[in-house]
Design a protein that fits this description.
Helices cover about 40% and strands about 15% of the residues. It is of the alpha+beta class and about 210 residues long. Helix 2 packs across helix 3.
C-alpha cells in the first residue's frame, strides 16, 4: 500500500470506518496516527512512528523528532540531558540491557573503519610508533576499499565487513595490513586484506 498522509480538514472527504484509539484511527482498515506537529495522520508503521510510544495520547512522528534532534536546540537539550545524573543513569541502564548490548555490538560492526583505526592507534602507541601526521583515517580506509573493489590485497578474494560481521573470528573479514612492519599504520603504508591472510602470513602482525 502506498504511503498516505491525511490532513484533519480533508478527512471528511474519505469514506472510512473510525475507531478512536488515542488519536489513532483506521482508514479502510489501515491504522493511522495523528502527529500533533505535522497536523496530519500518518500510516501507523515503523517507517513513521516509534511503535513503543504507541500508547501515548499525543505524539510526533519520526521525521519531526529527527529534524528537532538535528537542530541546535535539540543538540543542546540532548547534551544537557546526557550530562545530567538522570541522563547518565538512563544511558548506563540501557547499555546493560540485552537490547543495548545488541545495539552496541551492531554499531561497532557498522563502524568497522573507526574500530580498525582505534585498534591500530592503540597498538602503535604501546610500542611508540604512533605519529599524528599521515595516520590512518576513515576516508582513506573507505577509499582503499573502493580502489581494491572490496577484495583482499594479497589473495584477491572478496572481503566482508559491516553489520553482522565479527572481525575477530571471521576469516573473510577485512583487516588492515602494514606493508612495512617497521612503520606504523600510516595511509601510505596500509592496505586491506583478509583476516585469514594475516593469520597465515603474518600471525604476529597487527
Amino acid at each position: 500500500m502506498s504511503v498516505m498522509a491525511f490532513n484533519l480538514n480533508s478527512l471528511i472527504n474519505y469514506q472510512f470506518s473510525v475507531v478512536i484509539m488515542s488519536f489513532r484511527i483506521q482508514i479502510n482498515d489501515q491504522p493511522v496516527k495523528y502527529c500533533v506537529a505535522c497536523d496530519v495522520f500518518h500510516p501507523f508503521t515503523k517507517e513513521f512512528w516509534q511503535i513503543r510510544n504507541a500508547d501515548k495520547q499525543y505524539g510526533v512522528c519520526k521525521a519531526v523528532k529527527k529534524e528537532y534532534g538535528q537542530s541546535e536546540r535539540g543538540k543542546s537539550t540532548r547534551k544537557k540531558y546526557k550530562q545530567s545524573d538522570k541522563g547518565k543513569a538512563a544511558v548506563q541502564k540501557y547499555k546493560q540491557s540485552d537490547n543495548g548490548k545488541i545495539v552496541s555490538k551492531k554499531e561497532k560492526q557498522r563502524n568497522w573503519d573507526r574500530r580498525m583505526i582505534n585498534s591500530s592507534k592503540s597498538t602503535d602507541k604501546k610500542i611508540e610508533r604512533y605519529e599524528e601526521g599521515g595516520y590512518l583515517t576513515r576516508e582513506y580506509l573507505k577509499n582503499c576499499m573502493r580502489v581494491q573493489q572490496e577484495k583482499c590485497f594479497h589473495c584477491g578474494g572478496p572481503m566482508v565487513f559491516g553489520e553482522g560481521i565479527n572481525r575477530s573470528t571471521n576469516g573473510g573479514a577485512a583487516t588492515v595490513e602494514r606493508m612495512n612492519n617497521d612503520l606504523g599504520h600510516f595511509c601510505c603504508n596500509c592496505v586491506l586484506i583478509h583476516n585469514r591472510c594475516q593469520w597465515v602470513n603474518h600471525p604476529l602482525n597487527h
